[in-house]
Each structure stands twice: as C-alpha cells, then as structure tokens.
Task: structure prediction
Amino acid sequence: MSKTDKDYKTIDAVIVGAGFAGIYMLYKLRQQGLEARVIEAGSGVGGTWYWNRYPGARCDIPSMQYSYQFSEDLQQEWDWSEKYATQGEILTYAEHVVDRFGLRDGMTFNSKVIACHYLSGEDQWQVKTDQGEQIKTRFVIMATGCLSKPNYPSIQGLREASVPVYHTGQWPHEGVDFTNMRVGVIGTGSSAIQSTPLIAKQAKALTVFQRTPNYSIPAYNEPLDPDYVSQLKSRYAEYRQENWTRGFGADFDENDQSAFEVSDDQRRSAYEARWAKGGLAFLAAYNDLVFDMKANDTAREFFKEKITARVDNPALAEKLVPTTPIGCKRLCVDTDYYEIYNKDHVSLVDLNEEPIGCIDGDAIMVGAIRHEVDAIVLATGFDAMTGAVMNIDIIGESGLSLEDKWAEGPKAYLGLATAGFPNLFLVTGPGSPSVLSNMLPSIEQHVEWISDCIEYMNRNQYRAINPETRAEDAWVEHVNEVAQTSVYPGCNSWYLGANVEGKSRVFMPYLGVPPYIEKCEEVVAAGYEGFQLMGTS
Ligand code: FAD
Ligand code: NAP
Result:
C-alpha cells in the first residue's frame, strides 16, 4: 500500500517510460503484488511508436517476430495485417496490450522524470517529475528507450527558421500535409529512407541533404498470407524458442557458411535470392559478413550494383553508394527509396562537398547556395542508448552522478545495472544486445531478468543490489573486445555515439544474443555473480 511520507508518496517501483519495456515491466511487477507506477513524458503508451509518426514509419523486423511472446493467448489472438506493420498498427497493438492486461491505471502520462536521487540511509530512491510530483521508491527501472531522445543538430539559425521544422522522432499527431510544398529533408538514415518516398509523392519539390549515404535493401512488404500465419501460429512458442539461439534473436535464415566457402557464382546466386526476399536477413547470408572485411566487401560490391541499377543518373547513383562497411551503420529497409531520385522534382545535396552552413529564414544554406523550402524535416536520429537516461539528474551512492560516471562512455554490468546506483535497473541498457537484436524479445528478456531479481531479493530479504565495479569493468571490456572482432566499429555510427557532437565514442551494444542470454543465466545460477546483494542488517 502506498503511504505518505511528508510530501512523498512511497511505492515499490517507479518505471520510467511507457514503451514496450515499461508496459511489460508494470505487468511483471504487478504479478508479484508490488505497487509500481509507470511515468511517461508522452500523453499515451507505445514509446517509439507513439513518437515516430512520420509518413512511412513501420518496423523492419517482421511483425510476427516484432511482438510480445510472454502471453501465448495474446500472440495467438493478435493478427498483423502486413509483414512489416505500420507505426499506427504497432501503436494500436501497444494500446491493446495495455487494456487487455488492465495496466492503464498504473500509468501517469504527460509527466517527465527529471531527477532520481538515492537516499543511502533509507535504501530508497527519491524521484521527481516536471509536474512537481515527488515519489519515494525502492526500485527504479529505466524503460526510457535506446532511441527516444531526438538528436537536434546544432545548425546555426535552425531555431529561428521561418518555416516549420519537424523531427521524425517527434512528429505531429495530426500529421503534416506537404502538398504543394518545397521540402528539405536532412539525413539519410532509416527514418529518411522510409519517409522520403511518401513525402516525394506529396511535395512540389523535395531536396534531400545527405552527409553519409546508407545501404538500403527493399522491404517487399506485403499483406500477410493467412496460411503462413496459421502455420507459424501452430508452433509459435517453439518458433520463438528457436529464435533465442540465433545471433540477432530473429529468424534471418542464418547461413553458417563463410562467404568464401562457396564459389563466386554460388555467392552471387545467394545474394540474388536474399535480395529478392528483401529485408535485414540479407546480412545473414554468410556467417562472416559482419566479421570479415573481405567478406563484407563482396556484399558491398553487390549492393553497389543494385543501388546503381535503381538510379537513372550514374553520377547521382555514385553519390548514393556508401563506401563504409555494410552493416556498420544499421542496414535500412525501404520501399522505393532510390527511385525517388529518378523524379524531376527530387534532388540530392551531397554535404560531403560542402556541409550545411546555416538556416537563413526559409533557406538551408550550403556554401553560397540558398535552398529555399516551405518545411524542414530533421531525419537526424537520436542521442542513442544513453541520451534518455542521461537526460535525468541521477545521483547514486555517495553523491556520485551518472553524468560524471558515464562521462567517458557508459559503463553497465550486462547493460542491466550500473555500479554505484543500487536498485536502479536499465532495460536494454548499454552493454546488452538491444539495438543489435530484435528488440522486443530483448526487452522481454531484460524485464523478466529484472523482475526475477526483484522477486529473489524480496524472497531472501535483500534490501539492495549493486553491481561490483570489477565485474562491470570486465563486462565493458568484453563488450568492446567482441565489437572489435566485427565491422561494427568501422564507421561513424550512432552505435558509437559518433552522431552526437561532444559524445564520447564507445561502442555501446553487445554483439550476440545467445552468449548474452547464457551469461545472464549463469550470473543468476551463481547467486547473482558480479552483484553485491545487501541483506536486511
Ligand atoms: P521506447 O519505445 O523508446 O519508450 C521509451 C519511453 O520512455 C518513451 O515513450 C519516452 O517518452 C519515455 N521517457 C524517456 N525518458 C523519460 C523521462 N525522463 N520521463 C518520462 N518518460 C520518459 N526495433 C526493432 O527491433 N525492430 C524494428 O523494426 C524497429 N523499428 C524502429 C523504428 C523507429 C522509427 C525507431 C525510432 C526505432 C525502432 N526500433 C526497432 C527500436 C525501438 O526503439 C524498440 O524496438 C522499442 O520500441 C523500444 O521500446 P522501449 O520501451 O525500450 O523504448
Ligand atoms: P540515423 O540512422 O542516426 O540517421 C540520421 C541521419 O541524419 C544520418 O544520415 C546522419 O548523417 C544525418 N545527420 C545527423 N546530423 C546531421 C547534420 N548536422 N547534418 C547533416 N546530416 C546530419 O537516424 P534514424 O534514421 O532516425 O534511425 C535511427 C535508428 O532508428 C535506425 O538505425 C534504426 O535502428 C531505428 N529506425 C528503424 C526504422 C525501421 O525501418 N524500422 C526506421 C527508423 C529508425 P551521418 O550518418 O553522417 O551522421
């Protein structure tokens, strides 16, 4: 039961964020009879799928996999309409889950957590919101998302632009009508690649400002075949189980051969077959594509041909072909992206030749050229993995601030908790597979680990849990060692924090779902090895 301690309400757990992580966390803690509350900055649930309402937004992992598996009834009764569901359908799904499991009354919306301070003497966290609310809680769970803090580039004059500026990650709920407008889109990551084909359909003129080209493969999205759905649902649980043994926790039809175990012709046929199916599974064509630069080069050459074939103007095509290793920035999945450049009203500005100088009223200035527009779309991504957590003033034991602790890069044991901040958990935090996996299963795995841990603590009367610095350091080192065996650190990606000015460059996600799960299970089996558990004293 909640009680009032002076100005503070006291509950068992505060969960920050009402995306898929926060929703499931609340469900799990309520199952234990705990009083937990979700606090969400937005006015509704869904997280990513609440905020990213730009045209064309949809998942790039097939929906039959990008969905919860914790309830067999839920996964049997829910029907996705397309292979890759739209943002709207995924948001409806999130709302359905919340209502189906009666979770809405445990959520506070339009409220942002601004501070979490640990009171060592009380083993409590003091949580403050921007609405003036103060809560004392034993546990804090950061379900704040890996891609939830939009990255606003520091372009001079942007704030003073005389035309509307939209960020894909904070898109207006009522939508935007670009009919008869001249639109400038800054960025060529997944958000731009999904949105520009639809913006191009409406706009009078579209100018895309590209700093680094990305690799994209067609989605070949389609309505789901009812026979395929019923066949998969007849063995859904088993299928999900199989996916835990796969590198990215997703069914990408992984081939366990090296790209060089086959002849050039065989490799080419395999690439053609993967291309014809479309989607992220391309990268699983061979087991060394993201580990061996020479293998990676074979895929790069193939992509170069495919991209070039989709663009009529050879000089333009050349600008659209990346030179970075394939996969070191997340592979994009598109519907008719490259084809927009064959239209007369679409143009590309290569910022490698000259960066954006400033925004001057209604013009994006590149060198002396004024690109006049009626609207600017920032498809400039996110302060990934750490941005949302670091946005909160978090003070742990002995006055240690998370901002100081993570100044040289995030440190977290298994991406689940960070030393010096007892009873504070991270869902898909840095050092966990998170963004290098199918995120919904990864979220479920983290939520279950955390809720099992809390249940264990209560059963054994432990008042606090805190990672040991030694274990944490060893894990962070291991995360980096594994990353160095791959092509992932090989370019300026958001995985490394390179997209945000002044952010330290550290490779943040852990590569490999199966070894990660194994490690998490070993830690628990050994009595939470690497964690310090404090008794009731
Ligand atoms: P989020 O959904 O990001 O939710 C976090 C919530 O926390 C947000 O609603 C935010 O408002 C809230 N919050 C943050 N800070 C505070 C605070 N201080 N106070 C209160 N509330 C706060 N992953 C895949 O695996 N497959 C995909 O196909 C895929 N597609 C994606 C498409 C887009 C456009 C984007 C941006 C990401 C995509 N992702 C995808 C990654 C996606 O973020 C995750 O799959 C998943 O939705 C994350 O859920 P979450 O609950 O962890 O975080
Ligand atoms: P992103 O991949 O980080 O792309 C941002 C783009 O903006 C990049 O092209 C970047 O260029 C550019 N940019 C940033 N600052 C700039 C500046 N000052 N001047 C010019 N260009 C600038 O962000 P995103 O497209 O939003 O995607 C982020 C992640 O979200 C994805 O990788 C994916 O994990 C997820 N996502 C998934 C989907 C999906 O298909 N389901 C859709 C959207 C997002 P540089 O590369 O040079 O930094």
Summary: DSSP finds 15 helices and 21 strands in the chain.
